[in-house]
Amino acid sequence: MDYYQILGVSRNATPQEIKKAYKKKAMEHHPDRGGDHNAFAEINSAYEVLSNADKKAAYDNPQPQFNNPFGNNPFAGTPFEHMFGQGFAQPQNRTPRNQDITIAARIELSDVLTGKQLIVQYRLSTGELETVTIDVPPGAKHGDTVQYQGLGDKGNIRYPRGNLNVRIHVGKMKNWDRDGDNLITKKSINVFDLLLGCVIIVKTLDDKKVKLNIPKGTKHGQVFSLPGYGIPNINTGRRGNLYVGINAEIPTIEDERLLQSIAVLRDQIYTTR
Q1: Mean pLDDT, to the nearest integer, of 122-133?
Q2: How many helices (H) and strands (E) does the chain have?
């Protein structure tokens, strides 16, 4: 990562030129203005190094790194070193970077419908408190980890920043459950409406009101499906289903004459079977 190239200045740039370039780039790529988080993080990292005389000197004059001479060839240091040493594949070198940081972020179940923007704080190895804005995507599940590149630790100025890993905790909501991309809720309906049939209004998680036809003779525990009112899939954006389970609501009746009428009706129904 070339910090000079990121800020668009030459290696001979003055501190004033570096500061001016940083302000311009930061304005262009600030997330609050629709900029990219990763680009903004790189700009901040570049300025942090190039604006500090000691860090800039260390960056301009990095110390050479030496590999262990015995690490790649298993015959190193033996009489067979030159005979067999060339036949072994050399391991691929990964570009070193600073450590990743993992934090937890809590959102509500309703937040997964549209996603959630959060301002989070975490402490770096240097003791510095970092504050960033992150976007939790729609459809995120409880326990998911969302990675934001270039927002991790930056203690070693010679290496790029690590990544920020945000572990998502989705809060529970009363009367709502989730199964993958589907939502599950329950509605209580009195037994007479179940016997005769009715139309109910179901309020969705995003506060829409949807009519649901309950056919006559619907039983306790029966489940109806409302397609497209569930959770959006995190990859496709397509919403799952809303499943509505029916609870039979038994009324409390104290009027003896009414109870006798119901008993007569019961006897008529069951004696005709």
Answers
A1: 90
A2: 7, 11
